[in-house]
Amino acid sequence: MFWWYKNKKPKLPQKRYSPNSVPILMDDLYNHYIIPSESLTYLEKLGTGNSADVHLAEYTNNSNSIKVAVKTLKLNCFKADTLKEIKLLSSCKHEYIVKFIGWMETPDEQMCIITEYMGGGDLSTYLTNPNKLLMVSTVFNYIFQVLDAMIYLSHKYILHRDLAARNCLLNETYEILKINDFGLSREMDINYEYISEANPRLPFRWLPLEALLPTSSEYRTFTFKGDIWAFGILVWEMFERGHELYDGISLPALIRFLKVGHRLPRPQHCSLELYKVMLSCWDENPANRPTFDTLQDDVEKVFQEIKTSDPNKLNIAIELNCGNEYERPNIS
Ligand SMILES: Nc1ncnc2c1ncn2[C@@H]1O[C@H](COP(=O)(O)OP(=O)(O)O)[C@@H](O)[C@H]1O
Ligand SMILES: [Mg+2]
């Protein structure tokens, strides 16, 4: 997550949301948001990401108990940076953004962030589970929820920088999607790490071309147009049920592939019109990419068009490994 400074603010269309957060002072983080460790009972491990281990825990406060997720950041995370980011996270209140509950520091100085527990787990796991039914209408529903949250963040001048299925969480009925894991990328190492090939877990396949190019004057740049690129990739992930992006391409091959104008192919159940919207997110020139506001209008138009002309298309179940129809990108 990264704040644009005032003089770098991009021009955004008229706000649909006025961010409802009262600025949170650093003191408030100490006064109101510290969770005493004795109020947490750890239950099970939920997952491991790039920067943290996440556990399910029961949090008891004034004799009320709720389930929470406790994210314990790896030791190489600096406390000052983490606190700045916690401050930002705590200022985000939106129905499609995972709710911040508090934070604490363990006796061995590990920083923990406590958020609401999302019983459906992450979207990437859901998409790749063959036992889960995924309808085209559900994908549209998820897309609209993501867009709502991203409009909110972009109006607050907050970059996510790691928008991907693995960072979207679902509620226990899989109807509500919330964006998670923003602000947790260290500013100092995000670009270096994210394009490092040594570690295949790092998500360079979600990054915009300008963040990958070693020779560009815009080398390692990531603006809100990078989040737009990642949004297009996320839509692709949904329609391909978590299929590996670009078939696991290497970084140099990906740069060559994108540089000559190739892009991920259209998934089988993604309409041509929606695919055009995705392609606009992957325009080589960041200035030509849409904003989240215009994307909301564009996707709404596509959705309404399908609904009136061929509503049955919304009831199609997207099967896992409908790979026979998957046009592999032609990468040489
Ligand atoms: N609030 C939550 N509820 C349920 N599962 C969660 C929650 N937060 C994280 N997880 C699980 O832990 C994984 C890693 O969490 P994440 O916040 O993305 O960590 P990292 O910053 O290390 O990538 C997620 O993909 C998800 O499976
Ligand atoms: Mg993550």
- CATH architecture type of the largest domain: Orthogonal Bundle
Spans of at least 5 consecutive residues with low confidence: 1-22, 186-200
Secondary-structure element string: HEEEHEEEHHEEHHHHHH
**Overall pLDDT confidence:** 84
Q: Shape from CA axes?
A: globular
Query: How far is the N terminus from the C terminus?
Result: 35 Å
Q: What name does the CATH topology of the largest domain carry?
A: Transferase(Phosphotransferase), domain 1
Bound molecules: adenosine-5'-diphosphate, magnesium ion
Please give the domain count. Answer: 2
- Tell me about the biggest sheet? 5 strands, antiparallel
Tally of DSSP β-strands:
8
Strand order of the largest sheet: 1-2-3-5-4
CATH superfamily of the largest domain: Transferase(Phosphotransferase) domain 1
Described by its quaternary structure, the protein is single chain
Helix fraction bin: 25-40%
Structure summary:
With 332 residues, the protein is an alpha+beta fold.
Helix-strand layout with pairing:
Layout: H1 26-32, E1 40-48, E2 52-61, E3 64-73, H2 79-90, E4 100-105, E5 111-116, E6 121-122, H3 123-127, H4 136-155, E7 168-170, E8 177-179, H5 190-194, H6 209-212, H7 224-239, H8 251-259, H9 272-281, H10 292-309
The structure holds adenosine-5'-diphosphate and magnesium ion (MG).
Magnesium ion (MG) binds next to loops.
Keywords: ATP-binding, Kinase, Membrane, Nucleotide-binding, Transferase, Tyrosine-protein kinase
Subcellular location: Endomembrane system; Membrane
Catalytic activity: L-tyrosyl-[protein] + ATP = O-phospho-L-tyrosyl-[protein] + ADP + H(+)
